[in-house]
Amino acid sequence: QVQLVESGGGLVQPGGSxxxxxxxxxxxxxxxxxxxxxxxxxxxxxxxSSISSSNASATYADSVxxxxxxxxxxxxxxxxxxxxxxxxxxxxxxxxxxxxxxxxSSKAYEYDYWGQGTQVTVSS
Length: 124
What we know:
By secondary structure, the chain is mainly β.
């Protein structure tokens, strides 16, 4: 059974940092591109960042470039999203998703498996 489990969310003040983790079981993560998405209340889910299955490329939404960094540790079957200089508009539920042999994409329909999400709240 394939499972993606996000963790690391929480409440942080503006300007703070969080590191989200996406731990996979039931699949070999090095065969999958991983995307991070977020959804704020009343808004559509949006792609935040992705990393290809080969680890050769990463993408970022314009709104997070220079602040967020995606990385993977295939030995731990885990992908991370380091989020720095957080802003209130970064608030939302963050999801990770896996696409087999993918290049990485911001399009949700391209992903095969999804986690349950972790809440990130940026507020003073």
